[in-house]
Description:
By secondary structure, this protein is α/β, with parallel strands linked by helices. The protein has two domains: 6-214, 2-enoyl-CoA Hydratase, Chain A, domain 1, CATH 3.90.226; 218-265. Helices cover 41% and strands 14% of the residues. It has helices at 30-45, 67-76, 125-132, 159-167, 169-178, 184-189, 202-216, 219-232, 237-251, 255-265; strands at residues 6-11, 14-19, 51-56, 114-118, 122-123, 135-139, 143-145, 182-183, 195-197. α8 runs antiparallel to α9 (237-251). The longest helix has 16 residues, at 30-45. The radius of gyration is 19 Å and the shape is globular. Mean pLDDT is 89; it is low at 83-90.
Amino acid sequence: MSNQEILYSVENRVATLTLNRPDKLNAWTRVMEAEVREAMQEAAADDNVRVIVLTGAGRGFCAGADMSLLQSVVERRVHPLPAGTPPADNGRLASARADFQRQYSYFPAVGKPVIAAVNGPCVGLGLVIAMFCDLRFASQDAKFGTAFARRGLIAEYGLAWLLPRIVGHANALDVLLSARIFDSQEALRIGLVNRVLPAAEFAAGVNAYARELADSVSPRSTRVIKRQVYEAMFQSLAEALDTATEEMRASLECEDFKEGVAHFVEKRAPAFTGR
């Protein structure tokens, strides 16, 4: 895969996608959007990948949509980014519910944990991208904000649906209405991020967690659990219980369950296959 605006690498079963416009704080472009989607598809299809980390090069995670795109809206009256549904060739993501096949909402359809490693400013569209990841780790230097209301815009790309589910109704309204910038400790307090790590230890800390997932847990289990959690957003409790019963029956017959018992009894490292 040849990229212009991202870097992609796989090591120790962890795929790392790095937004690579450091001189622009990794401001989002059409090219970057297409390359991130292609890389996510590649990681989803690669049996050698068990965890995906999305981060930014240099000092920033993503400072939002590139201002040249926003300026083009003012001058030419066009939308800065493509809207609507994703391309028809949707690979392994095609089996997901329609809600998780849209422009940015496809991250939950990737059957592997996606970790946003927020190393710096995470604003506007950059915050949207981070919120659609499964987990968010922040450097102590990271800053967050929506920016939309201060640009005459609204809660974009489903953030009005997603953000209250993560940080609660009142916190979501505060973040969206004020469009203020806040630090990583406040992000941790309201539940927007899972962990805050010292800047000097950030990359190593994120990698250690990703490696733990890649090495120690069943990829089949993570795939099914992730699907359960996101599907439960649309289910009643009874429906979620029924799904859990069906999935438990299937898991008791899978190879990873047998290996999960065997490695515990034999006191050795697991050798999960994902089957």
